[in-house]
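Pilot study result, target chain (186 residues):
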Amino acid sequence: YKRNIEIATNQNPLTKLPGNNQIEKFNEKSLKRNQKNITHIIYFDFNDFKPFNDIYGFRLGDRAILVFSELLQKRYPKDSFIAHIGGDDFFVGLRNHKFNEVYDLTNKVQIEFKTSMENLYSKKDKEKGFIIAKDRFNIERNFNLLSVSSAIIEINPKSNISDFDATLNILKKASKGSPNPISSIL
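Predicted structure:
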């Protein structure tokens, strides 16, 4: 019973993926100074999700989240750690994989997600290639169709882990709206 409660509190209720506690544990293990292997950490964040949710409703918003979670589980190797940070933010951790392999796979996931999301839009919006919605300042403007940004960090035995949080924040900002993964080696 206690184990079931622990599992439930440590996973996202929608996707059933591990949540922030497990992400923290994965990162702690990856950032240990005596780490001998290479780890890649990938953060994903949807682009223009709020306007999509506002126009099309939370059911289709949840559908987009589920499609992405299934895509991650199908495309990344079985030894990957895949988690749902919350909302439209996801995490993938890989150990002992080559950077080019991780980058190419992440790029393919971004392309596949963008293509599959087009099916959630009305014919009219799909043809236009955007939707019109209010932004956070309540100003009506055009928003692109759903896509996902990614930030990849490589951690190796020579990495300066003291820069991890700062590097991650810079990468996440730089990746927003980018059709390709943004990456850095610590």
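One observation from the pilot: Strands lie at 39-47, 81-86, 89-95, 130-134, 140-144, 147-155, 182-185. A full batch analysis is planned for the follow-on phase.
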